[in-house]
Amino acid sequence: MPNPAVTPLAIIDAEFTEIQQSKTHRLATLRRQLRNPERHLQAIKATLGEVAKHYLEESVWAKAGLTYLDKLSEEPNHGV
User: Is the pLDDT of residue 48 over 60?
Assistant: First the structure.
């Protein structure tokens, strides 16, 4: 009969090892993205853009400015 205290730990350890070694697991992807400063800048930009859209949704000029800044910050061949 297996030891009930060891079996869950062994299962958790095996799952954790699989996540660490996987290149496509969501947690492995998140771990790589958290180490990438460029992704942090993109996330901050997107967050600030959404907050600004919420507060400035009535202003056509604000929308135009946000769209301009968003397109200006894209990669050169992206969205053309």
Answer: yes
Task: Map tokens 């699989």 to a residue.
Answer: 18
pLDDT at 67 exceeding the cut of 80: yes
pTM value? Answer: 0.48
Query: Is residue 46 within 8 Å of residue 32, measured between CB atoms?
Result: no
Q: Are 20 and 30 in contact (CB under 8 A)?
A: no
Q: Which residues contact 32 (CB under 8 A, 6 or more apart)?
A: none
3-state SS assignment for residue 14: helix
| Nearest CA among 71, 44, 39, 65 for reference residue 53 | 65
First to last CA, the chain: 64
